[in-house]
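It would be a great kindness if you could assist me with a short task in structural biology. The matter concerns a single protein, recorded as an amino acid sequence and a row of backbone structure tokens. Could you please explain, in whatever detail you think fit, how the structure tokens follow from the sequence? Thank you for your consideration; the sequence and its tokens are set out here:
___
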Amino acid sequence: MAKKRSDRGKKPGPPIPESPAQYMSRVSKRKPETKMEKKMRRRYLKERQAELDAADKRWADAGEWAKDVLEADAQKKAKKLATDKPSGQTQPSGAAAGEQAEVASSASLLSMAEAEDTEAESGGGPADSKAPKKLRPSQHIQLQNRKIGRLRVLVAGQQNKIDRICKDAEDFADGVKRQLEEMQQTIRQLLRL
């Protein structure tokens, strides 16, 4: 059937929405799931669950690694403060106080993280009151998000320390540069005499 002259060049309109009766008739015509399809679906779900378990293990390993790094750093700083502290000095001052504050903050952050994990895994109550409950998917996601947030805080702290070290190095380089410029000016003045 040829199009009318008035309909030529017009774009087709939006598709007509499907009515509930049409939807039910289309769904009822679907074939039942075969044994092969059921087997493939179960295998797919099993693979996805294995991926989730692997992701949980990676996060747990990352948390243990961060904890070990912070503990080693805290022990190194404490040892350094103990060796650098004079015999007659009773109160830390300056950089020593900052080092002790960083050690204390790292230790408190680790203890808070462990307490939150224990409370979340025990279903929100005391750990000794009842057996641990299996977390719902939403609670599991919230727990993983908290772990990610803590790791980001730790990484940000390390980045801040790196930034401070870089700034100190830049300030030292600027000071050396100024001293060299002053020495060059002095040498030029002496040569003019």
Remarks:
- The chain has four helices and no strands.
- The CA atoms of residues 1 and 45 lie 51 Å apart.
- The longest helix spans residues 137-192.
